[in-house]
Amino acid sequence: MQQIIVLLHLRTSYFVFRKWFFMSEERTEISSLGEFGLIDHLTKNIEHQNASTILGVGDDAAVIDHFGKQTVITTDLLIEGVHFDLMYTPLKHLGYKSVVVNVSDIYAMNATPTQITLSLAVSNRFSLEALEEFYDGVYVACEEYGVDLIGGDTTSSSKGFVISVTAIGEVAPDQYVKRSTAKPNDLICVSGYLGGAYLGLLLLEREKKIFLETKGVQPDLENRDYIVGRLLKPEARRDIIEFFEKEKIVPTAMMDISDGLSSEVLHICKQSEVGAVLYEDKIPVHPDAKDFAYKLEIDPTACALSGGEDYELVFTLSQSDYDKIKDVNGIRVVGYVTEAAEGAHIITRGGNKHELTAQGWNAFSK
To answer: Which of 227, 255, 285 is nearest to 104 (CA)?
Structure first.
């Protein structure tokens, strides 16, 4: 299987517009194909992987049949200059990530992703070769997560690159998990490590600023491939959902962590009408992320609580499931659910108690 590898040393070329943004012998203008010609070109090699995909690209609508299972649907919008910066985001990685952020939402419902639709708005700054590279990443992600690209739309944009993905999944009847069903005394758990993607963003933004302000300076990413990879090529936690199915575990509530742990826990508290206690010393931060945070003289825990874009899962479990997860690599208990009247708090390593606040990314802050 073709794989995407996050480059260990990003070169200067990632901090300038790529060659296909300009006129060259290798550049093919999208206008030369037309809308339907472009769709045909970009989707000509689609291979379906799910029996539930009855009819895909090529008609006015797709047809799917989940054979008695319940259907889960989610959608995400990614805007250039708001959600991603093409000065340091390779288009192949962007295509991959566009799929991952949507299938992560499907997993957060305890469901299995099966199909996606993909719509793009692009300016004439982009060539056919640029879109081919973006779609290469989309197809790798589709193969990795076993989903079918079954449709979408393309149109022109007066400025920049706009991506809209809708993901469709299936779940056994009454096995989907909501945000609103956590109960007092449930355990609060997370998958993986938190805060790495935010630190990767800080590093890339720092190097972009230096590159733009200082002529001839080469970007120096300090071999920080872990945190750069967490931002540019996140992975959705299919393995956790497969583990739940194998062990017959159904979380009482679940979300994916796109806006920071504190924000997601507070969402669960609000919708479940409960409180929460988190323990700072239980929150998992990767050693490489900690090292870079200390270098920047910022708190690694703050990055985990408010950084976002980790696409890990936060979920609550009945205490009766503790023995099933206590020795599982990649799952950590970070706190517990309380009655709503107790509020939401974090206990620091020093034993102090502070109110939990959401300081994550706000989509409308710009």
So the answer is: 255
